[in-house]
Amino acid sequence: MTVKQMILGMELGNLSGTQPDSWRAPGVDPVEYLDYDTRIRYAQAAERGKLQFLFFPNGPYHEVKDFEHYGPDMTPDVMIHMAILARATDRIGFVASASTTYNHPYSLAQQLKTVDYISHGRAAWNAVASGYPDVAANYGSEVLSGEDRYGRARESIELVQSLWASWGREAWVHDQETGEYTRPGEVAPVSFEGKYVNSRGPLYIPPSEQGQPVIVQSGLGDNSFALAGRYADLAVGLASSIEEAGACRETIRRYAAEAGRDPDEVKYVAGFSPTIGPTKREALDRRASLVASRLPQWLPQLGELLGVPLSMADLDRVLQPSEFGALRAPNPDAPGWIQARSIRAHALASEGWSVRDILAQGVFAEHPTKVGTATEAADHMQEWFESGAIDGFWLCIDVYRDGIDAFVDQVIPILQDRGLFHRDYEGTTLREHLGARDQYGPDYRVAQTAKPQPVLTHLAGRP
C-alpha cells in the first residue's frame, strides 16, 4: 500500500523574500531582484530539497503603495523567469501566473508550451482571472464584471488547451528519408469561436514529455473555486485554519464532480509562512526584524483585536489578561481570516508573549505562520496534512538568501524521516510530480463553452 505524501511548492518571484523588510536583511544584496544567477541558486536549492514546484506570482501590479520603502512584489516577467530557471534545473516544476483577462490565448499557448517543451515537461499555467483596478489601469482598461472575467477565463483555458493539441500528439514524423514531416491532418486549425476569444490556429509546437502544461488555479471565492474544479490539476489556496482549508478543498472537489471530473484529480495546497531558527527566541528575533517597518501600522490593529490601545511604547510589554479580556464571539458575516486573526491574537496574548512577539508570530501574515525551530515547523505541517484538509503546502520563505537552505536542510529531513515527504523525485515531469492525469488537449469530459472544434475529433476519448 502506497502511503500518501505531501506535495510541496515554494513561491519564488518577488524581491528578496516574502517578508516586508527582507530586502534589508543582513547579507541581502537589494539588486538581486534582477540577478538571475542568484535566482538560479535559489531554484537549485529548492530542487535539492525535492520540492515539486516553484510558484511565480504575477499581478501584474504593485501591491504596496509605499514604493519608496518597499520593493516590487511580483515576478519581473514570468515566462522569461520560468525559461531561465528551467534550463538551470532538472526536475523541479514551475507554475507561471498569467492573466486570462489581459493576454490573448494564442500568445499564452505559444509561450507556455514552448517553455514546457524546453523544460522537458515541467511547466504549469496558473490561469488568473484578473480583477484588480490597478491591473486594469496598466492595460488601459476597465475592470470586467465577474461574469465576463470568468467567462473569458473559461474560454481562454479551453482555447489554449485546444491550441496545444492542434499539433497532434503523434503528428511529428520528421522522416528525412521519405520527406514526411508530419502525418496528414495531424497539425490543423482549431477554428475556436467563443463569446470572448477566438483563434484559427494551429500552434506549431509538438508535445513535451508531459504532453502539455498543467493547469493551476490560485483564486479565492466561488467563481475561482468553480474554475479550479472545472479545469485545474492543482489549486493553490489561502486558508487561515485547517477548517477553512478543508472547506475550500471540499468546495473545489464538489465543483470538479459537477463538471464531470474525478474530484481526486484536483490537488489542494495551502500557504505556509515559516521562519526557522536554532531556538524559538532566535526565530522570533529574526521575524521581528523582518516586519519592523510595519509595526506602526499593525499596532493599532492589534489593539483593536485585543480591545487595548497600543503604541510603539508598548512593544516590549506583556499584556495582562485583565487588560485584553475574553475573546468576543466572532461575527458570522466576517471573513474567516478576520476571525482567525482575532483568535490568534488572543491566544498569543494569553500565552504571555510581548506585543512585539505577538506581531512577530504572524497575526497579520497572509498565511498561517510558524516562527520557531525546524521541528515546530514540521509539527505544524504534519498536523495540517494529516487532518486530510490539504494535499500539501506552498511555502512562503521569509528571506530567500538563507531561509530556503534552512528549510531544505532542517525541515525537509524531519518530514522525510516521518514518512510525510518523498526522498527523491519519482518521475521527470511536473504532471508526474503532482500525480496529475495524463491529458492532451481539452478535457472532453467537461462540457466545452465555445463552438466544438471538429479538427480535434481525433483526440475525442483520449485522456
Automatic annotation (TrEMBL):
Give yes or no: UniProt keyword Oxidoreductase: yes
Every Luciferase-like domain range: 27-389
Which Pfam families does the record associate with it?
A: Bac_luciferase
Q: Name one GO molecular function term.
A: oxidoreductase activity, acting on paired donors, with incorporation or reduction of molecular oxygen
Tell me which residues bind FMN. 150
Q: Report the InterPro entries cross-referenced here.
A: Diverse_substr_monoxygenases, Luciferase-like_dom, Luciferase-like_sf, NTA_MOA
Q: Which of UniProt's keywords are assigned here?
A: Flavoprotein, FMN, Monooxygenase, Oxidoreductase
Q: Which NCBIfam families match?
A: FMN_nitrolo (TIGR03860)
Could you tell me which PANTHER family the record lists for this protein? ALKANESULFONATE MONOOXYGENASE-RELATED, C2H2 FINGER DOMAIN TRANSCRIPTION FACTOR (EUROFUNG)-RELATED
Instruction: Describe the family membership recorded for this protein in Swiss-Prot or TrEMBL.
Output: Belongs to the NtaA/SnaA/DszA monooxygenase family.
By what name is this protein known? Nitrilotriacetate monooxygenase
Q: Which organism is it from?
A: Pseudarthrobacter siccitolerans
Source organism phylogeny: Bacteria, Bacillati, Actinomycetota, Actinomycetes, Micrococcales
